[in-house]
Amino acid sequence: MAQADLLRKRLKPGHVYRREDLEQYSTSIDRDLSSLVEEGVLFKAARGVYYVPRKTAFGMAPPDDKDLVSGFLKDNRFLLTSANAYNSLGVGTTQLYNEYIVYNHKRHGNFKLGNRVYSFRMKPHFPKEVTKVFLLVDLVNNLNQLAENEKDLLKRVAEKAKEMDGPKLRTAVRLYGNVRTKKLFSSFLKNDS
User: Where are the domains of the chain?
Assistant: First the structure.
């Protein structure tokens, strides 16, 4: 049995693999990986990162975004979000963005993984999951990157801040807010006891 066939038997649909994860199954890993990519068994997501597509009712699909990002980072400590999530806050954001944001401790910059571009942003702190208070702080952190009118949006953010759990919001501002965000929220919450 050829080494590429042995390697093929190890691959599972929907899984992400790093080159070094597969080296143990082949003495000519680069040749075998190239061969499997040419056959359409494997897809190259990024340098040294591959995935096996999964079958869906609509055809072949890439793995879950979290699996792809985790394989790329070699780490599970990240937060995957999008500016589209701000629309759920009810502060008047309505734009749709075609960018996924990955808060992490390792990489910074835009990276194309498969057919999608991810904006990797190194941050010292971020929550394990997206919450409403984090989203409100993150929206203000990224205000200059949004298409909405900044002044109108800040008015609605100030109103929304007063509706939220004050202690949780203050903690989120302290942990995740940049200097400008901290200053703005201190003015929003100054009359809040």
Answer: 3-62, 66-189
d(CA 26, CA 59): 30
Strand, helix or coil for residue 148: coil
Burial of 173 (0-12, 13-18, 19+ CB in 10 A): buried
User: Running DSSP on this structure, what letter comes out for residue 94?
Assistant: -
Which of 104, 103, 82 has the alpha carbon at shortest distance from 93?
82
Q: What gap in Å lies between CA 184 and CA 119, rounded to an integer?
A: 25
The tens digit of pLDDT for each residue in 123-170 reads 999 999 999 999 999 999 999 999 999 999 999 999 999 999 999 999
Confidence at residue 172, expressed as pLDDT on a 0 to 100 scale: 97
Of the candidates 104, 124, 99, the one whose C-alpha atom is nearest the C-alpha of residue 177 is: 124
Instruction: Centre a 10 Å sphere on the Cβ of residue 98 and count the other Cβ atoms it contains.
Output: 9
Closest CA to 76 of 99, 106, 46, 53: 106
Q: What is the pLDDT of residues 159-187, one digit of tens each?
A: 999 999 999 999 999 999 999 999 999 98
Among 3.40.1350.10, 3.40.50.720, 1.10.10.10, 3.30.70.250, what is the CATH number of 3-62? Answer: 1.10.10.10
Structure-token pair, residue 64: 């879950």
Query: Contact, 56 vs 81, CB < 8 A?
Result: no
